[in-house]
Specification:
With about 190 residues, the protein is mainly β. The chain has a single domain (about 15-175), classed as Protocatechuate 3,4-Dioxygenase, subunit A (Sandwich). Helices cover about 5% and strands about 25% of the residues. The protein has helices at about 15-20, 145-150, and strands at about 35-45, 55-60, 85-90, 95-100, 105, 115, 115-125, 130-135, 165, 170-175, 175. Strands 1, 4, 9, 10 and 11 form a 5-stranded mixed sheet that branches. The chain has a 4-stranded antiparallel sheet with strand order 3-2-7-8. The chain is globular, with a radius of gyration of 18 Å.
Length: about 190
Amino acid sequence: MRLFATASQTVGPFFTIGLNPLARNNLVPSGAAGKLCTIRGRILDGDGVPVPDGMIETWQANAAGEYVRAEISAPSSRATEFTGFGRISTDERGAFQFTTILPGPIPAPGGGVQAPHIAVLVFARGLLRHLVTRIYFPDEPANAADPILKMVPPGRRSTLIARKISESSDILECDVVLQGEAETVFFEA
């Protein structure tokens, strides 16, 4: 008997079936401390075509630059506690949107400080593994010294920094481009 390798399998399109019940666009419980902002964008393939069944997961520090850890959180405070975690599905136009708190700066490995950012995992049909990226904030002075952002070539950093839609708005835009000339910077997991 001869054995043949099977074709590789992708991770989707299961998100709308199994994960949408866990998705939520407002990541901020009532009473949580910090300045709110809304981040919107689209997941696009290499041809600029929207990915309608993608999903992003977000993880971030709170406004004080602290990550919530279960072992230090009192159970009674969890109802109003900002967890820093979100799961957001794309719609038929490949669009996502979520409301969160502007995170504070966090300590960098080896000393120093990382600029406020949101860690993002990207899941989409055709990907064998999730992609890892970050969203940084525009006009943030700490961006210039962020050790991770400094490793990215200057011409590519804009793929990680959200854009203001207007000076008077708390809405930011940040697209995720999976490949091609305007590809978002992705990091090794």
